[in-house]
Amino acid sequence: MAALTISGGAGGFNPLSRAWNAYERSLRRHPVLTQAASSALLWGLGDAMAQRIEARCSGVAQPDGRRTALTAAFGGGIIGPSGHAWYQALDSLVLRCGLVGSSRRAMLLKVVLDNLVYSPAYVLAFFAFGCLAIDRLSPAEFKEQLRSQFVPTMLAEALVWPPYMALVFSRVPVPHQLLAVNVATLFDVCFLSWVRCTHDHATADAGSSELLHSDVATASEYAHAAPLQLEPAQPVTAVAAALPEGDVAPAPAPEPEPGLRVERRQLAGRSAVQRTGVGYSFLLTSES
Protein backbone atom coordinates (compact mmCIF):
# COMPACT_ATOMS: atom_id res chain seq x y z
CA MET A 1 0.00 0.00 0.00
CA ALA A 2 1.36 3.41 -0.96
CA ALA A 3 1.92 5.72 1.98
CA LEU A 4 2.46 9.39 2.60
CA THR A 5 5.22 10.33 5.02
CA ILE A 6 5.80 13.42 7.17
CA SER A 7 9.42 14.08 8.15
CA GLY A 8 10.34 14.69 11.77
CA GLY A 9 11.29 18.08 13.13
CA ALA A 10 14.33 19.25 15.06
CA GLY A 11 15.54 16.67 17.56
CA GLY A 12 13.56 13.92 15.83
CA PHE A 13 10.26 14.75 17.58
CA ASN A 14 7.25 15.94 15.63
CA PRO A 15 3.73 15.45 17.10
CA LEU A 16 2.14 15.78 13.64
CA SER A 17 4.50 13.13 12.26
CA ARG A 18 3.68 10.78 15.12
CA ALA A 19 -0.06 11.26 14.66
CA TRP A 20 0.22 10.66 10.92
CA ASN A 21 2.30 7.52 11.41
CA ALA A 22 -0.29 6.21 13.87
CA TYR A 23 -2.99 6.91 11.26
CA GLU A 24 -0.97 5.03 8.64
CA ARG A 25 -0.60 1.99 10.89
CA SER A 26 -4.31 1.99 11.67
CA LEU A 27 -5.14 2.36 7.97
CA ARG A 28 -3.02 -0.70 7.12
CA ARG A 29 -4.49 -2.85 9.88
CA HIS A 30 -8.14 -1.70 9.82
CA PRO A 31 -8.73 0.20 6.57
CA VAL A 32 -12.54 0.33 6.63
CA LEU A 33 -12.80 1.18 10.32
CA THR A 34 -10.12 3.89 10.02
CA GLN A 35 -11.81 5.43 6.98
CA ALA A 36 -15.15 5.40 8.82
CA ALA A 37 -13.65 7.06 11.93
CA SER A 38 -11.86 9.78 9.96
CA SER A 39 -14.99 10.44 7.89
CA ALA A 40 -17.15 10.75 11.02
CA LEU A 41 -14.66 13.17 12.58
CA LEU A 42 -14.39 15.41 9.52
CA TRP A 43 -18.12 15.43 8.73
CA GLY A 44 -18.99 16.25 12.35
CA LEU A 45 -16.36 19.00 12.41
CA GLY A 46 -17.68 20.40 9.13
CA ASP A 47 -21.24 20.57 10.50
CA ALA A 48 -20.03 22.27 13.71
CA MET A 49 -18.18 24.89 11.64
CA ALA A 50 -21.25 25.36 9.45
CA GLN A 51 -23.40 25.97 12.54
CA ARG A 52 -20.95 28.62 13.73
CA ILE A 53 -21.33 30.42 10.40
CA GLU A 54 -25.13 30.16 10.54
CA ALA A 55 -25.17 31.42 14.14
CA ARG A 56 -23.06 34.44 13.21
CA CYS A 57 -25.52 35.32 10.46
CA SER A 58 -28.75 34.67 12.35
CA GLY A 59 -27.67 35.70 15.84
CA VAL A 60 -28.75 32.37 17.37
CA ALA A 61 -25.72 30.96 19.18
CA GLN A 62 -27.22 27.70 20.50
CA PRO A 63 -25.50 24.71 18.80
CA ASP A 64 -27.54 21.75 17.60
CA GLY A 65 -25.75 18.71 19.01
CA ARG A 66 -28.26 16.30 17.52
CA ARG A 67 -27.63 17.60 14.01
CA THR A 68 -23.84 17.37 14.44
CA ALA A 69 -24.08 13.83 15.82
CA LEU A 70 -26.30 12.68 12.96
CA THR A 71 -24.03 14.30 10.38
CA ALA A 72 -21.03 12.55 11.91
CA ALA A 73 -22.98 9.29 11.85
CA PHE A 74 -23.68 9.77 8.15
CA GLY A 75 -19.99 10.36 7.48
CA GLY A 76 -18.88 7.36 9.52
CA GLY A 77 -21.64 4.93 8.64
CA ILE A 78 -22.14 5.69 4.95
CA ILE A 79 -19.37 7.83 3.46
CA GLY A 80 -16.47 5.99 5.15
CA PRO A 81 -17.26 2.41 4.08
CA SER A 82 -18.78 3.29 0.69
CA GLY A 83 -16.00 5.72 -0.22
CA HIS A 84 -13.31 3.21 0.70
CA ALA A 85 -14.95 0.51 -1.42
CA TRP A 86 -15.57 2.89 -4.34
CA TYR A 87 -12.03 4.19 -4.73
CA GLN A 88 -10.57 0.69 -4.41
CA ALA A 89 -12.99 -0.64 -7.05
CA LEU A 90 -12.32 2.34 -9.33
CA ASP A 91 -8.59 1.69 -9.22
CA SER A 92 -9.10 -2.02 -9.93
CA LEU A 93 -11.36 -1.20 -12.89
CA VAL A 94 -8.73 1.10 -14.41
CA LEU A 95 -6.07 -1.59 -14.05
CA ARG A 96 -8.34 -4.18 -15.71
CA CYS A 97 -8.75 -1.77 -18.61
CA GLY A 98 -4.98 -1.92 -19.12
CA LEU A 99 -4.32 1.62 -17.94
CA VAL A 100 -1.59 2.71 -15.57
CA GLY A 101 -3.13 4.08 -12.39
CA SER A 102 -1.24 7.40 -12.56
CA SER A 103 -1.60 7.99 -16.31
CA ARG A 104 -3.66 10.81 -17.75
CA ARG A 105 -6.15 8.47 -19.43
CA ALA A 106 -6.68 6.59 -16.17
CA MET A 107 -7.21 9.85 -14.34
CA LEU A 108 -9.79 11.07 -16.89
CA LEU A 109 -11.66 7.75 -16.75
CA LYS A 110 -11.81 7.94 -12.96
CA VAL A 111 -13.08 11.51 -13.02
CA VAL A 112 -15.84 10.65 -15.51
CA LEU A 113 -17.00 7.56 -13.61
CA ASP A 114 -16.82 9.34 -10.27
CA ASN A 115 -19.09 12.14 -11.51
CA LEU A 116 -21.52 9.88 -13.35
CA VAL A 117 -21.87 7.08 -10.77
CA TYR A 118 -20.62 7.91 -7.27
CA SER A 119 -21.47 11.60 -7.10
CA PRO A 120 -25.22 11.23 -7.89
CA ALA A 121 -25.50 8.32 -5.45
CA TYR A 122 -23.73 10.31 -2.73
CA VAL A 123 -25.90 13.41 -3.24
CA LEU A 124 -29.09 11.31 -3.24
CA ALA A 125 -28.04 9.53 -0.03
CA PHE A 126 -27.19 12.84 1.66
CA PHE A 127 -30.52 14.38 0.61
CA ALA A 128 -32.45 11.38 1.94
CA PHE A 129 -30.57 11.23 5.24
CA GLY A 130 -30.64 14.99 5.78
CA CYS A 131 -34.34 15.43 4.98
CA LEU A 132 -35.75 12.32 6.66
CA ALA A 133 -33.40 11.82 9.64
CA ILE A 134 -31.99 15.27 10.44
CA ASP A 135 -34.79 17.64 9.35
CA ARG A 136 -37.56 15.06 9.97
CA LEU A 137 -39.45 15.91 6.79
CA SER A 138 -42.26 13.75 5.47
CA PRO A 139 -41.68 11.57 2.38
CA ALA A 140 -43.79 13.99 0.32
CA GLU A 141 -41.68 16.96 1.46
CA PHE A 142 -38.52 15.01 0.72
CA LYS A 143 -39.70 14.26 -2.82
CA GLU A 144 -40.55 17.93 -3.38
CA GLN A 145 -37.15 19.08 -2.12
CA LEU A 146 -35.42 16.45 -4.21
CA ARG A 147 -37.36 17.57 -7.29
CA SER A 148 -36.46 21.23 -6.81
CA GLN A 149 -32.85 20.94 -5.56
CA PHE A 150 -31.29 17.74 -6.92
CA VAL A 151 -30.51 18.99 -10.43
CA PRO A 152 -29.07 22.39 -9.32
CA THR A 153 -26.93 20.58 -6.75
CA MET A 154 -25.60 18.16 -9.34
CA LEU A 155 -24.78 21.04 -11.69
CA ALA A 156 -22.81 22.74 -8.91
CA GLU A 157 -21.03 19.44 -8.18
CA ALA A 158 -20.10 19.11 -11.85
CA LEU A 159 -18.53 22.58 -11.84
CA VAL A 160 -16.57 22.30 -8.59
CA TRP A 161 -15.44 18.72 -8.07
CA PRO A 162 -13.96 17.43 -11.39
CA PRO A 163 -10.84 19.65 -11.27
CA TYR A 164 -10.20 18.74 -7.65
CA MET A 165 -10.82 15.04 -8.27
CA ALA A 166 -8.40 15.13 -11.22
CA LEU A 167 -5.75 16.39 -8.80
CA VAL A 168 -6.66 13.71 -6.24
CA PHE A 169 -6.60 10.82 -8.74
CA SER A 170 -3.28 11.91 -10.23
CA ARG A 171 -1.38 12.86 -7.03
CA VAL A 172 -2.89 11.11 -3.98
CA PRO A 173 -2.42 7.38 -3.27
CA VAL A 174 -5.63 5.33 -3.41
CA PRO A 175 -5.86 4.63 0.38
CA HIS A 176 -5.74 8.40 1.08
CA GLN A 177 -8.12 9.58 -1.64
CA LEU A 178 -11.20 9.42 0.60
CA LEU A 179 -9.39 11.46 3.26
CA ALA A 180 -8.53 14.11 0.65
CA VAL A 181 -12.16 14.22 -0.47
CA ASN A 182 -13.43 14.53 3.12
CA VAL A 183 -11.06 17.44 3.83
CA ALA A 184 -12.42 19.28 0.78
CA THR A 185 -15.98 18.43 1.84
CA LEU A 186 -15.35 20.09 5.21
CA PHE A 187 -14.70 23.45 3.52
CA ASP A 188 -17.48 22.85 0.99
CA VAL A 189 -20.04 22.49 3.79
CA CYS A 190 -18.89 25.79 5.32
CA PHE A 191 -19.12 27.54 1.95
CA LEU A 192 -22.64 26.25 1.31
CA SER A 193 -23.74 27.40 4.77
CA TRP A 194 -22.36 30.88 4.06
CA VAL A 195 -24.20 31.00 0.71
CA ARG A 196 -27.47 29.93 2.33
CA CYS A 197 -26.99 32.47 5.11
CA THR A 198 -26.42 35.37 2.71
CA HIS A 199 -29.41 34.22 0.61
CA ASP A 200 -31.66 34.22 3.69
CA HIS A 201 -30.52 37.76 4.60
CA ALA A 202 -31.13 38.98 1.04
CA THR A 203 -34.63 37.48 1.08
CA ALA A 204 -35.41 39.10 4.44
CA ASP A 205 -34.12 42.49 3.25
CA ALA A 206 -36.23 42.24 0.11
CA GLY A 207 -39.32 41.44 2.19
CA SER A 208 -38.67 44.38 4.53
CA SER A 209 -38.23 46.75 1.58
CA GLU A 210 -41.48 45.55 0.03
CA LEU A 211 -43.33 46.02 3.33
CA LEU A 212 -41.87 49.54 3.72
CA HIS A 213 -43.02 50.56 0.23
CA SER A 214 -46.48 49.11 0.99
CA ASP A 215 -46.76 51.10 4.24
CA VAL A 216 -45.63 54.32 2.51
CA ALA A 217 -48.27 53.85 -0.18
CA THR A 218 -50.92 53.18 2.47
CA ALA A 219 -49.98 56.35 4.34
CA SER A 220 -50.16 58.35 1.11
CA GLU A 221 -53.63 57.01 0.35
CA TYR A 222 -54.76 57.81 3.89
CA ALA A 223 -53.46 61.38 3.66
CA HIS A 224 -55.35 62.02 0.41
CA ALA A 225 -58.58 60.34 1.46
CA ALA A 226 -61.59 62.64 1.12
CA PRO A 227 -63.60 63.15 4.35
CA LEU A 228 -67.11 61.72 4.42
CA GLN A 229 -69.69 64.25 5.68
CA LEU A 230 -72.28 62.99 8.16
CA GLU A 231 -75.88 64.03 8.09
CA PRO A 232 -76.66 66.63 10.78
CA ALA A 233 -78.09 65.02 13.90
CA GLN A 234 -81.57 65.92 15.16
CA PRO A 235 -81.70 68.12 18.26
CA VAL A 236 -81.91 66.25 21.53
CA THR A 237 -85.04 68.25 22.54
CA ALA A 238 -86.97 66.83 19.58
CA VAL A 239 -86.11 63.28 20.61
CA ALA A 240 -87.18 63.97 24.21
CA ALA A 241 -90.53 65.45 23.09
CA ALA A 242 -91.33 62.28 21.18
CA LEU A 243 -91.04 60.10 24.30
CA PRO A 244 -94.27 59.01 26.07
CA GLU A 245 -95.19 60.67 29.31
CA GLY A 246 -93.73 59.00 32.37
CA ASP A 247 -90.61 57.82 30.61
CA VAL A 248 -87.48 59.34 31.91
CA ALA A 249 -85.48 60.80 29.10
CA PRO A 250 -81.73 60.68 29.34
CA ALA A 251 -79.96 63.87 30.26
CA PRO A 252 -79.38 65.89 27.11
CA ALA A 253 -75.85 65.99 25.87
CA PRO A 254 -74.27 69.43 25.75
CA GLU A 255 -74.67 71.18 22.46
CA PRO A 256 -71.46 71.35 20.45
CA GLU A 257 -69.85 74.70 20.32
CA PRO A 258 -70.66 76.79 17.27
CA GLY A 259 -68.28 76.28 14.43
CA LEU A 260 -67.61 72.57 15.11
CA ARG A 261 -68.54 69.61 12.93
CA VAL A 262 -67.96 65.88 13.05
CA GLU A 263 -66.07 64.19 10.20
CA ARG A 264 -65.61 60.51 9.51
CA ARG A 265 -62.68 59.20 7.52
CA GLN A 266 -62.32 55.65 6.38
CA LEU A 267 -58.79 54.31 6.67
CA ALA A 268 -57.52 53.47 3.21
CA GLY A 269 -55.52 50.29 2.74
CA ARG A 270 -55.53 46.82 4.29
CA SER A 271 -52.24 47.36 6.17
CA ALA A 272 -53.58 50.30 8.20
CA VAL A 273 -56.73 48.37 9.19
CA GLN A 274 -54.64 45.42 10.37
CA ARG A 275 -52.42 47.64 12.48
CA THR A 276 -55.13 49.71 14.14
CA GLY A 277 -57.90 47.14 14.39
CA VAL A 278 -60.58 49.77 13.54
CA GLY A 279 -62.22 50.81 10.33
CA TYR A 280 -63.18 54.43 11.04
CA SER A 281 -61.77 57.43 12.91
CA PHE A 282 -63.87 60.31 14.20
CA LEU A 283 -62.29 63.78 14.26
CA LEU A 284 -63.47 67.12 15.59
CA THR A 285 -62.27 69.92 13.31
CA SER A 286 -62.85 73.66 13.52
CA GLU A 287 -64.74 75.59 10.86
CA SER A 288 -62.67 78.33 9.28
Structural features:
288 residues, 8 helices, three-stranded antiparallel sheet, disordered C terminus, globular, mainly alpha
In brief, what are we looking at here?
This protein is mainly alpha-helical and 288 residues long. The protein contains 8 helices and 3 strands.
Q: How would you portray this structure in words?
A:
The structure is a single chain. With 288 residues, this protein is mainly alpha-helical. The chain has helices spanning 15-29, 31-58, 65-96, 104-134, 139-171, 177-223, 236-241, 270-276; strands at residues 228-229, 260-266, 280-286. Mean pLDDT is 74; it is low at 259-288.
Topology:
Blueprint: H1 15-29, H2 31-58, H3 65-96, H4 104-134, H5 139-171, H6 177-223, E1 228-229, H7 236-241, E2 260-266, H8 270-276, E3 280-286
Antiparallel strand pairs: 1-2, 2-3
Shape from CA axes?
A: globular
Counted by DSSP, the helix tally is: 8
Instruction: State the end-to-end distance.
Output: 101 Å
Class inferred from helices and paired strands: mainly alpha
**Largest beta sheet: what is the strand line-up?**
1-2-3
The quaternary organization reads as: single chain
Which spans of ≥5 residues are poorly predicted at pLDDT below 50?
Answer: 259-288
Number of strands: 3
Instruction: Please tell me how large the radius of gyration is.
Output: 36 Å
N-to-C SSE series?
Answer: HHHHHHEHEHE
Strand content: 5-15%
